[in-house]
Amino acid sequence: MTAIEKEYFALEELEERWQLPRRDLAYLAENGLLRVSVRLYGVRIERGSYEETQDGQWFRIPEEQAWFQGLQDLRPHDVYQLLHQGEVRVQHFEAPNAAYCHVVQPDEGVVVKRDELVVRREERDRAEAKHGLGGTPRSSTRGFSHRSDFSEVTLGHRLYTLGPIQGRVVQILFESATAGFPWRHGKSVLAEAGSSCTRMADLFKAQPDWRKLIQSDRRGRYRLNIKFS
Which has the closest alpha carbon to 149: 131, 165, 173? Predict the structure, then answer.
């Protein structure tokens, strides 16, 4: 029988695959060692970033608001409450540093139940490589993986959640590297990606660790921080 090529898995499937008791799986999830998601339907979400004023006050800068259907990652403290209480009302989802992901409708947030929790395929693979789960040898190499639209990329053990233009920049650099020409002029990459920014640092300012993903030669050229064979 041909196995279904799934994009995500229920926790019970991982317990069986990894031969791991629920308490150990819960430990990974509630401590942020395993990113857990939930599938949403008909939820209106606002995404944006935080900026700090000169007097130290933080405020939101909305970037997009849309009806959402698909997987959304949960924050570890919500996962903790959910695993121990059976359900939790969620108003904020996991977002990169200096960014936010907030439920606009329903006004009171979304009720998530324990049996709705899932783990993305790429997160499962990352956890297996890092923790040696399911018989997979622990990985000591700085591997690189990505979603088809580059909205999420993983370098080593670090997961980056990217906006559309950020993802396009990484995709351009990835394609250049695989073609044997890893170094690209930053301004031309930004223009090709459709960005109004003229500096890479401005586009990735909400990604504090972006320089671990993208290297600069300090002369205006950039490449992915990956060794290609």
Answer: 165
Residues 6+ apart with CB under 8 A from 175: none
pLDDT in tens, the chain (229 residues): 556 778 899 999 999 999 989 899 999 988 888 999 999 999 999 998 888 777 777 788 898 999 999 999 999 889 999 999 999 999 999 887 668 899 999 999 999 999 999 999 888 888 887 777 876 555 443 578 888 889 999 988 889 999 999 999 999 998 888 766 788 999 999 999 999 999 999 999 988 889 999 999 888 899 998 875 4
Give exposure, 184-215, as e/b (b: 16+ Cβ within 10 Å): bebbebbeebebebeebeebbebbeebeebbb
Orientation angle between helical segments 164-178 and 186-193, nearest 10 degrees: 120
- Cα 25 from Cα 15, distance rounded (Å): 7
CA gyration radius, the chain: 19
Residue 111, token pair as written in the block:
């009720």
Answer yes or no: are the C-beta atoms of 37 and 116 closer than 8 Å: no
Domain boundaries, the chain: 9-133, 141-224
Single-letter code of the amino acid located at 79? V
150 contact partners, CB below 8 Å, separation of at least 6? 162, 167, 168, 170, 171, 174
